[in-house]
Amino acid sequence: MNKITNHMPTAELQALDAAHHMHPFTDNSALAKKGARIMTAGKGVWLTDSEGHKIIDGMAGLWCVNIGYGRPEMGEVAKAQMDQLAYYNTFFQTSHVPAIALAAKIAEIAPEGMNHTFFAGSGSEANDTNIRMVRRYWDIKGQPEKRIIIARHNGYHGSTLGGGSLGGMSGIHEHGGKLAGIVHIGEPNWWDQGGDMTPEAFGVMRAQELEAMILNLGVENVAAFIGEPVQGAGGVIIPPSTYWPEIQRIVDKYGILLIADEVITGFGRTGNWFGSQTFGIKPHIMTIAKGLSSGYQPIGGSIVCDEVAEVLGSQGDFNHGYTYSGHPVAAAVALENLRILQEEKVIEHVQKVANPYLAQKFAELAEHPLVGEATLVGLMGSIALTPDKATRAKFAAETGTVGYRCRERCFANDLIMRHVGDRMIIAPPLVIKPEEIDVLIARAKTSLDECLQGLKADGLMVARA
Ligand code: PXG
Question: What is the CA radius of gyration of the chain?
């Protein structure tokens, strides 16, 4: 008997949830009326809910369960570490074996010259670390006025005050404000904003907004640029091929620090260990979380290049850290996750099996009358919904209306596929097998068909004027 399924009736769980649990990024009163979907178990790419539905998880949780659910080794490692040393900190000149081993392992898999990790509990915390780190770096270098960080509209870097400020989402800035000293340039979203330009020309144009912003602010005031190799929460925006080379040229020319936020793109998601490798980016700092532990434990961090680490270590304390920086249980579990990724050749599986197979299926989906484009890198992809492929038209209905309707159809068909505006996004566990991709695609197709029928019935298959 599996005791996790031996729970109260769903309605009672939903009532307790509504009464006491405040959900992130949720209209809690609307949810209270509807009742949350309650997940009870996970195995591989499959979730079970409290009603016994078998759901295929096209989002790897929240882009994190890279090795899939239900790996018993992870729990065994956690238990052994709790029994051995459940907690100790890494402040005050102490350390412990899991943090040491994980930092050393990360140095082994990270790009050359990135040999140091500062641990945090999440991606948001790590990005807060990054803000303080780059400013401290320039202080020590004798240029304390270099404080501004340039980021991008529709980027996502977390929802602490620092992470939310780096992110370029106005909905987040409106709730609680935005830190001073962070500015945003345009995103490389050709589908949405490229107009008549070629993707290549548009990519260069968007990257050159960085140069214009540096010149406008004065390079003597700019500390760093931060970007996700591929915007995740922004809708899986895969930049044109020209974008990152031009960003790299500008960052190099002006000597500012480059932070690649690899919270989603790290640990195999794009078919290499890091998105920076897929896109040829040479960052000074990489933000990590999610796939570092496949979500089995909360852990994040900043991988720091030798030069920045050396400068930060050259003048006394860096007054920063978290109680759970390098938490031993989280670190041990992350290390086991990296062992699984490496020994089971999960990234090779993405490159050689899962990506090519899904890419072929995506090409078929792109033929669907509701789909404008279906794009994919590694195992992160998105489908742009449109009433008119030829013109990349937007729907007349408010942005997100159609995406939400499509997501509801996916939910009803036991497929988790999220929507961002009118884009549908997927990022399944990296261990997904071809026959599971078949199920995912079949359910996606049914959901798109049903969505299209509903749009036609309700007169919503109409382009914006
Ligand atoms: N950077 C990036 C690139 C992220 O995607 C964070 C930082 C923050 O990590 P934490 O661990 O603090 O959440 C993220 C997180 C979504 C969604 O709806 C995406 C994230 C988090 C929650 C929801 O796509 N990404």
Answer: 22
Task: Give the chain's domain count.
Answer: 2
Same-domain check for residues 147 and 58? no
Residue closest by Cα to atom 15 of ligand 1: 158
- How far is Cα 167 from Cα 365, in angstroms, rounded to an integer? 31
Instruction: Determine the pLDDT at residue 1.
Output: 40
User: What separation in Å is there between the alpha carbon of 100 and the centre of ligand 1?
Assistant: 26
Evaluate whether residue 413 is within a structural domain. yes
Tell me the pLDDT band of 448, cut-offs 50, 70 and 90: very high
Q: Are both 225 and 282 inside the same structural domain?
A: yes
| Assessment of whether the complete model's pTM goes beyond 0.90 | yes
The confidence score (pLDDT) of residue 7 equals 83
pLDDT at 98 over 90: yes
Query: Ligand 1 centroid to 233 CA: how many Å?
Result: 7
Three-state secondary structure readout of 330-381: HHHHHHHHHHHHHHCCHHHHHHHHHHHHHHHHHHHHCCCCCEEEEEEECCEE
Tell me which of 57, 62, 303 to substitute to probe ligand 1's pocket, judged by most ligand atoms within 8 Å of the beta carbon: 62
For 437, the domain range is 16-70+345-457
- Please name which of 408, 415, 464, 418 lies closest in space to residue 444, comparing C-alpha atoms: 415
Mutate to test the pocket of ligand 1, among 26, 57, 63, 130 (most ligand atoms within 8 A of CB): 63
Calpha distance 27→451 (Å, rounded): 23
Least reliable range by pLDDT among 4-8, 163-167, 250-254: 4-8
User: 399 with 437, same domain?
Assistant: yes
Nearest CA to ligand 1 atom 17: 233
Average pLDDT over residues 75-80: 98
pLDDT in tens, 109-127: 999 999 999 999 999 999 9
Query: Ligand 1: residues whose CB is within 6 Å?
Result: 62, 122-124, 127, 156-158, 163, 228, 232-233, 261, 263-264, 287, 289, 300
- Pair 336, 432 in one domain: no
Q: What are phi and psi of 417, to 5 degrees?
A: -140, 125
Nearest-CA residue for atom 20 of ligand 1? 233
In a domain, 20, yes or no: yes
Residue 7 located in a structural domain:
no
Tell me, yes or no, whether 463 lies in a domain. Answer: no
CA 176, distance to chain mean position in Å, is 22
As a whole number, mean pLDDT of residues 139-147 equals: 98
